[in-house]
């Protein structure tokens, strides 16, 4: 009798904020692509440049995570479908995969009134992660932070995002911070991050207004046009809109948007970015940019752009891209900050060019190296 076929290695994706809009779209979307229900539109790593990189197949990804709410994932998917974020019939078509991921979601923290110390929380999160890897017989698990944006951290105490990042290090898991929250960037974690031997990437996914800024900023600079002012306004609802109604959380987000301009233009133009919470818009974001610039002989001109995007549909494929790339980087022995993934982030770790085209060239070279490292 012949031996049963070996099961292909399975890779875990542990989502912090696993019941949120982005996380739910990641789980439902991965199942939809695996089942061939939708083409991989928006997924960078399905392009030909990545075909020989040895990335884990979408069908090999196993999802779990932490959240502090208890809304079941299938119900969350139905809510997103009702809001037009997910295709109408998708929650039913991928009900089994949503239920499987839901069984792997554990209550995180800190919860209101939580009396556990930082060390106790890190230890609990680490144990949850190890249990996920063991139960599912995973070769590795990538931790991805897609929880609500925190206010900028001040003081010595580790914010929740850093407690989770510390747990990822302790459990030996590569880490991706898709949010502007502190995560691994806390000074108290710097030594452990450097010594951990694990690859990590972040911060804050570049999905809409900042993506456009990273493409347009270099255009103005290369054409020697003088940008006098760059102002932006964002209207959005959903959980992210509610979280960013807090000026401290919005400040964390806006710092990244402004940094992209400073890095690509070489100067900081006048102008501010505003984020308004408009609950009626749900996950649908309108981002308006007004760019005042001078041309030849000081002639004054203006470019205005209006980006109307569905936030979770923009973010979810990038989370899948990042999980695959960082898992493969870990497999090939890479460690430390992955600046080559700057293409995906507003505020990239490590050293990286600021212009989108240069970031894409670095990503493609990175993909080639991952393939060569077999
Ligand atoms: N285009 C995009 O959608 C995009 C782009 C860049 C960054 N982001 C970031 O991704 C994150 C998720 O966005 P979203 O729209 O899914 O938000 P969301 O509000 O729908 O989901 C966030 C989830 O995090 C959970 N959470 C909050 N505190 C937690 C904690 N301490 N532990 C575990 N879970 C916790 C919440 O309960 C919620 O389920 C946000 O920080 C957002 O800024 C999104």
UniProtKB/TrEMBL annotation:
<dbReference type="Pfam" id="PF01658">
    <property type="entry name" value="Inos-1-P_synth"/>
</dbReference>
<dbReference type="GO" id="GO:0006021">
    <property type="term" value="P:inositol biosynthetic process"/>
</dbReference>
<comment type="similarity">
    <text>Belongs to the myo-inositol 1-phosphate synthase family.</text>
</comment>
<dbReference type="GO" id="GO:0004512">
    <property type="term" value="F:inositol-3-phosphate synthase activity"/>
</dbReference>
<dbReference type="InterPro" id="IPR002587">
    <property type="entry name" value="Myo-inos-1-P_Synthase"/>
</dbReference>
<dbReference type="Pfam" id="PF07994">
    <property type="entry name" value="NAD_binding_5"/>
</dbReference>
<dbReference type="InterPro" id="IPR013021">
    <property type="entry name" value="Myo-inos-1-P_Synthase_GAPDH"/>
</dbReference>
<dbReference type="GO" id="GO:0008654">
    <property type="term" value="P:phospholipid biosynthetic process"/>
</dbReference>
<feature type="domain" description="Myo-inositol-1-phosphate synthase GAPDH-like">
    <location>
        <begin position="208"/>
        <end position="312"/>
    </location>
</feature>
<protein>
    <submittedName>
        <fullName>Myo-inositol-1-phosphate synthase</fullName>
    </submittedName>
</protein>
<dbReference type="InterPro" id="IPR036291">
    <property type="entry name" value="NAD(P)-bd_dom_sf"/>
</dbReference>
